[in-house]
Amino acid sequence: MHVFDIDTNHWEKVQTSDFKPRPRCRHTSNIVKGQLYVFGGNDCELSFNDIWMLYIGVQVPQPSLPRDMLCMLESGEFSDVTFVIGESRIRGHRCILANRSNFFKNMFTVGMRETEESVITVQDISLSTF
Question: What are the pLDDT digits (tens) for 44-54?
Answer without folding.
Answer: 899 999 998 88
